Amino acid sequence: MTGLEIGIISVGAIIVLVYSGLHIAIALSLVSFLSVLYQSGSTSLAINLLTLAATDGIANQTFAVIPLFVMMGLLMNATGVGRDAFDVGDFVLHRLRGGLGLATVASNAVFAAVTGVSIASAAVFTRVAVPEMLRLGYSPRFAVGTVAGSSVLGMLIPPSVLLIVYAIITDQSIGRMFFAGIGPGIILSTVYCLGILAMAYFIPSMVFDPTRKFADEAAMGADRFEGVTWGQIALKLLPIGFLIFVVLGGIYGGVFTPTEAGAVGALFATLYAVLRGKLTLALFVQTLRETGYITAAVCFLIIAATMYSRSLAFAGVPSEIGRFAQTLTQNYLVILFIFVLIVLVLGTIIDAISIMLIVVPLFLPIMLQFGVDPIWFGIITTIAVEVGLLTPPLGMACFVIKSSLTNKEITLEDVFIGALPFAAMMLFVIGLLVRWPHLIYIDQWFG
Length: 447
Known about the structure:
It is a single chain. The protein is built from 20 helices and no strands. The chain is mostly helical. The protein has two domains: 1-57 and 300-315; 58-279 and 316-444, no CATH class. It is found in: Cell inner membrane.
């Protein structure tokens, strides 16, 4: 059996196992073991190879960045920064038609810079933004769709757990991945806002509830913000801005390594939670427990992905697939199109990190043979993978929104339909980044 055949069979086996209900890490490990066992015919060799993969997989202090940023995000979430960010966005943008949708996108972008987890954004803004939009006459589908679409910014704007995972499994710089995520994050946020404005002014039935009198006019008035000053709004944004400046500014300025920045961010988040009176002993213990759960799950997945990558290398799968791809075409865009298509299909049944762990080891070696920048490829992969959070039947962000809704009249179908325009906008941004690759680096925007 050739390496190409082994690669195709392994991916198919993993998908079947995962779709049958087996945990993705177990599926990756099992397929890797059986693959090496088939090729070598030696049980001891298969066990030793995979044991080394498990040992080497997370034997690096770089992995400390995961629990630190996760803890920082959980603590900042507990302090109510999501509510504060939404209040600031609402105050600044409420005079525009569709202003609450714009405020949701803007506040989600800010919230993403202190959490890095899309699911957390989806849960927070479902409770914060959706009730307010429904009260002011917005369509239920638009309300939940805006939250679903903007929640994916949490996995693109640094510090992002997905960018960290990609950097680790591809041996890239976490700092460079973070820097590369800023530009596309701004672009995606801008495209979302332009899309909302276009819908609000040209297709108002997509934004506002046609069964109610257009209530957004009330949102344009000053009644909701009577007595609120710019100083009060600035105070709400100050802690978030300071944390972003310290953590990301420290990384890009060379003051901290990403791991050190995670530690500083976690310390600041703890102190801020204490000062706001939000951190009880029970909540702190719960935060530590959740941090441990998330970290263990991510590290287990990375160990399994390391096993999978080594089993593929043992079979010569990357080079075999690379040669096959080059016989098909000399245009890397064709391979990239196939890659994105596969990711979108997998996104309907598998979660974001799992998709990345399965497909990146197969396609990155091919893209490197075409001279593709692995950092750029990582951003394209991240956005494509995140589309899966919005597509049925899995659509994790949509499920989180549905479970967090207080209005039970809004169905899961409404959430998925509302998220479709935002999924389309994400694909548009992928097209922009493919056409102009330099857009991932904000220092090249005007160069």
